[in-house]
From TrEMBL, chains A, B:
Residues 29-106 form the Cyclic nucleotide-binding domain. It comes from Filimonas zeae. InterPro entries: cNMP-bd_dom, cNMP-bd_dom_sf, RmlC-like_jellyroll. This is Cyclic nucleotide-binding domain-containing protein. Pfam families: cNMP_binding. CDD domains: CAP_ED (cd00038). It comes from the Bacteria.
DNA sequence: TTTATGGTGTGATTCAAATCACATTACGAA
DNA sequence: TTCGTAATGTGATTTGAATCACACCATAAA
């Protein structure tokens, strides 16, 4: 839980009492490679804060193709946010790619924390702000970039993920076929 | 300004004193068709809340093609959020497509309001939450949808915009060529 | 060690959508 | 009204990336 405190205090300082209170809303969970934290159709009970490991958030389209909406690693938050916030069944899967652990937070917990502590509402707002900007950036790349540019942007932004996850998953994240991606990275 | 109050009170009730305070951070601005609220390279001074009219937020790629990141109409917020939040020069343009008016809010104002009033921090968090989910949804469509599906999703989500903005702009929003879109809507 | 399974490169072929090139229509300004 | 400009439809052609099909190489399990 010390990691949680550090994570929050990057945004806002906390007193010991505050943190003690906050803590009670988080449950720790060990996860192993290939384990699913969420299945399509499930109720989306939690949002996850990654303490360790790598994960993918993805869905399967009607042709059976897998598309990755988000990767997550240490200190990233993840879930099927549409399902989580709207209390609808998941359209997505969350799967572990590398053994690790996560903290689980319910929507109730999130809202309660935000209501109880202005600081926490601030924390979540800042996180969302950053997330929003990142998504808008991603849309930009999807709209105008050819596979080459997409790959370069990704490499620049997440050189670490490039090492940690197989290329075929990166392809599924970039919206490019495995083969095309393979030919690209060669030409670089 | 009454519209602003209603807009905020859809999320959280306000006392008169609170609203009086809030109000001081917003400046109203009339805008005419073809007028730019933001140019690429500008400092991104404001975020805008649309009171009336339609607007597009777009950028121009290195081949000179225009890509629309966001449309906005009544009660939507818009700006180049990356530039706004990171205090970097704009990568985007904001242009008016239909006469109207907007409220302008500086980043300072936004942060001040959030710090002063827990309610306002809440308001912004809720807005960001919805925006985040919408962007994630858009990414989903961009990743898996063919032009047909993209168009259908858009029609379902924004039938009003379909009437209000020219097709070629919708094409630029969907990441599809004008011609392809034209052939599609015919086949429907 | 062998065997299987998943990741990856690379050629050949196909195909969907972009591009190019017009014609047509709608609309606002002079 | 007439002119000019923007929006739109539609054919012909090109092209970039997907798909198909395979070989090769890891790593992990038997």
């Amino acid at each position: 839980m010390e990691k949680l405190r550090q994570h929050i205090e990057q945004i806002t300082p906390l007193t010991d009492e505050e943190f003690t209170h906050i803590q009670t809303f988080f449950a720790i969970k060990r996860v192993r490679k290939n384990q699913f934290l969420l299945h399509e159709g499930d109720e989306v009970k939690h949002e996850f804060l990654v303490l360790q490991g790598v994960y993918k958030v993805f869905y399967v389209d009607n042709e059976g193709k897998e598309h990755i909406v988000q990767f997550a690693q240490e200190n990233w938050w993840m879930t099927d946010y549409s399902g989580y916030f709207k209390k609808k069944p998941a359209n997505m899967f969350v799967e572990c790619l590398e053994d690790g652990e996560v903290l689980c937070l319910t929507l109730y917990g999130r809202e309660k924390l935000s209501a109880d502590l202005h600081k926490m509402e601030h924390f979540f707002r800042v996180k969302l702000t950053n997330g929003y900007v990142a998504l808008q950036e991603r849309i930009r790349i999807l709209l105008s970039g050819n596979p080459q540019q997409r790959y370069e942007e990704f490499s620049k932004l997440h050189p670490d993920l490039l090492q940690r996850v197989p290329k075929k998953l990166i392809a599924a994240f970039l919206g490019v076929s495995r083969e095309t991606l393979s030919r690209l990275s060669g030409s670089k």
